[in-house]
Amino acid sequence: MNPINVGLLGIGTVGGGTYTVLTRNEAEITRRAGRPIRISVVADKNLELAKQVTGGKVRITDDAFAVVADPEVDIVVELIGGYGIARELVMKAIENGKHVVTANKALLAVHGNEIFAAAQKKGVMVAFEAAVAGGIPIIKALREGLTANRIQWIAGIINGTTNFILSEMRDKGLPFDVVLKEAQRLGYAEADPTFDVEGIDAAHKLTIMSAIAFGIPMQFDKAHVEGISKLDADDIKYAEQLGYRIKLLGITKRRADGIELRVHPTLVPAKRLIANVEGAMNAVLVQGDAVGATLYYGKGAGAEPTASAVIADLVDITRMHTADPEHRVPHLAFQPDAVVDTPILPLAEVETSYYLRLRVEDKPGVLADVTRILADQQISIDAMIQREPGEGEEQTDIIMLTHLTREKNVDGAIRLIESLPVVKRKVIRLRLENLDK
Hints:
This protein is of the alpha/beta class. It has helices spanning 13-24, 26-33, 47-54, 64-69, 85-95, 105-122, 138-145, 160-172, 176-186, 194-197, 200-214, 233-241, 303-320, 366-376, 407-418, and strands at 4-9, 37-43, 59-61, 75-78, 99-102, 126-127, 151-157, 224-225, 244-255, 258-269, 281-288, 292-299, 351-361, 381-386, 395-402, 405-406, 428-432.
């Protein structure tokens, strides 16, 4: 049978891994796909790199638009990244009737609605397993494996850079800035780490998972995004004393009045499996009404782990290449006419528990004033520790964990607490998720 011809746009880390794995496992992949899958042309501005990776065995060009217009190319693999040229290339490929595989979470989170609508109209597939959690098949699990379930919530460690930094901060007691430099030296963090450490990368991925889980459009602009750059090593230490670990989580929940969509540092009970995911690894916890909790763990980045997901998409498209478009798995799991525009809840309406750290004068009556404010805001305390002040110290830390409450109640309580003369610094507020139901 004639091979499926693939045009590869970008042969950097993931593109090179895709070429290597596809070549190395060609026989096995052909047995699974039912016909050979061959990269017939590679587009990259660095022609020398492309020749080096491919050994000159495929056609090389620096004109990506020529690839998406090539009548011999069946599937376009977009590994360029970003919102700009990548969007133009993907839309042009769809217009030309070509299937698309992409690892570009930013592109899909921001422009996915437009891209999927164009693909639906043209009868082509857009596959994106590699866009979320690298080699972990979480998209396939959500779209197909859990299709019988009403998904209730997802909580994921979906950025390896931040998980490595938090693991090092906890293990070594070092501040964020020191660990970030080490992460950059080791290659876990980019020279400009903003997308990772400020939670933007995780929010892109969470937006995609939320759309698939709940049958809603991509709504990245409505996500609450908070990173780890302001996280204090003291809070990691206090959380540990209380039996929790701090992870940067992407969390999306179905509520009666809408969908929660948020990324932020989160206290998780240390006994939870996801709390023990260390280093640059990723993990996604999905709660379904029928199956309960399921956990997906593995490498969330890297050449070959991400290539594994890219090639899985290539195999899926090859298998379904000649199928009636009406009988393919929908891009966002739900039939296009069944996607509903459920509102994303503002952060003020989020319901969770909280970690509060107060720097106060060490004098009688302080705790009574604070607990009175919390009670007035209908916030109950679950646990508390008070650091013993050192010799000669006149200030101390009070750390409290609350029961479930609304963010707006905590906002109001913090304003009142910070107005107390005995409170000497801004209140540190972190969110807490038990992830038990």
